[in-house]
Design goal:
The chain is an alpha/beta fold. It folds into two domains: about 120 residues, Sandwich (Immunoglobulin-like), CATH 2.60.40.10; about 240 residues, Purple Acid Phosphatase, chain A, domain 2. It is built from six helices and 19 strands. The radius of gyration is 22 Å and the shape is globular. The structure holds fe (ii) ion. GO terms for molecular function: acid phosphatase activity; metal ion binding.
Length: about 400
């Protein structure tokens, strides 16, 4: 019987013994796990596991649901990836199920055409996570935004999170001023974030406008990968259907500063088409007591129609709440004739905690000193229907 406790190895046979039995050359060298493992974009049936090693390695995740142990090994075009950054996407998971996992990296010393030289394996400590479920009675997540490379800010905010009562950490974007390097991604954001979350809590990330800028912006998705392979996705979390959107840049593509290197307009059109399908056909969305959008720019971003099509879709679909950042200061607007949903913009030095049951969704916003800022309570109510969307 498998027990969930830190330090327990899921291995059946020690790595050194296995390695000695292999016909190829195996050096007595192991990779060191330098970052992670951490979980990104958990859903009710999938999650991305990411970690880094100091030396080229190939990777797998050993996973146990308590009854059976299986190993998930990625391949790209038929080859096992070898590198320093490891992404293993776990799919086919059962909803609402607790899994224990180990991130395992095996050193590749030299990639020769035949008989590559190998090394030994390193395993992370066993950690556990629980998949979301459409039928879980509560949804509970904490939200930060616009941390903008301020690690002291990240530390102050995440220290205030009640991790035991939090299903996930949502980051609403602009973790950076611009994206320059791998070391920056870890040093200014993921390292202090993972230290607070631990290896068993997932990060749900909505890209901010600053994250489309810089020499390393095109690599960012490799560090916050989603099982869907997209920066926008939806999650069924009990009473909450959460739509994480990418509002991309805050200026049109033809703005001179982008030197014709941005094509967010067709990207956003594809995202809108996805959203239309999502709210029109997803059974959990149709029946969820609360439909919540988490995105960086509360006005949907820089769009030719100033977001009119998105607002119309959100109104028609019965979105209850938009959670956004970008402005760096708190604001709240109740539903009105223009938008039929609550709009809450979180400040830069604030933490929001969202807690929802079938009947009530509560957003509690506090400062980085723990002082209350605002509490929003939304009772469950859906006058509109997601059918016949505009
Ligand atoms: Fe922003």
């Amino acid at each position: 019987m498998f027990a969930f406790c830190a330090g327990l190895s899921l291995s059946i046979m020690p790595a050194a013994v296995r390695a000695q039995a292999e016909p190829y050359k195996t050096f007595d060298t192991r990779p060191v796990i330098t970052e992670g493992p951490y979980l990104v974009a958990l859903s009710d049936n999938a999650v991305s596991v990411v970690w880094m090693t100091d030396a080229p390695s190939h990777a797998k995740v050993r996973l146990s649901n308590g009854a059976e142990v299986r190993e998930i090994e990625p391949q790209v075009d038929g080859l096992v990836p070898v590198g320093l950054r490891h992404v293993v996407t776990l799919t086919g998971l059962a909803p609402g199920t607790r899994y224990a996992y180990e991130a395992i990296a095996t050193r590749v010393v030299k990639l020769k055409p035949y008989w590559p030289d190998k090394g030994l394996s390193t395993s992370s400590p066993v950690a556990a996570f629980t998949t979301f479920s459409a039928s879980q009675p509560r949804a509970s997540f904490s939200v930060v935004t616009d941390t903008h490379e301020d690690t002291a800010r990240i530390g102050r905010l995440l220290k205030l999170v009640d991790w035991v009562g939090t299903d996930a950490l949502v980051h609403l974007g602009d973790a950076f001023n611009w994206v320059d390097s791998e070391e920056q991604i870890f040093g200014k954001w993921l390292r202090p974030t993972i230290a607070a979350m631990g290896p068993g809590r997932p990060l749900l990330y909505a890209r901010g406008n600053h994250e489309l800028r810089g020499a390393f912006a095109r690599q960012l998705s490799g560090y916050v990968p989603t099982p869907e392979g997209s920066f926008y996705y939806s999650r069924a979390i009990g009473p909450v259907h959460l739509l994480v959107l990418d509002t991309a840049e805050d200026k049109p593509d033809d703005t001179n500063v982008y030197a014709q290197l941005n094509r967010t307009q067709p990207y956003r059109e594809a995202e809108l088409a996805w959203l239309r399908t999502q709210v029109g056909s997803d059974p959990h969305f149709a029946h969820a007591p609360f439909r919540v959008v988490a995105m960086h720019q509360g006005d949907w971003g820089a769009l030719p129609d100033r977001g009119a099509a998105w607002t119309a879709l959100a109104n028609h679909a019965g979105i209850d709440l938009v959670l956004a950042g970008h402005q760096h200061v708190f604001s709240y607007e109740p539903p009105d004739k223009v938008h039929g949903y609550h709009q809450l913009t979180l400040g830069q030095d604030q933490l929001a905690h969202v807690d929802a049951t079938e009947r009530l969704l509560t957003v509690s916003v506090i400062t980085d000193q723990g002082a209350p800022v605002y509490t929003l309570k939304i009772p469950a109510s859906h006058p509109s229907s997601p059918e016949s969307l505009p």
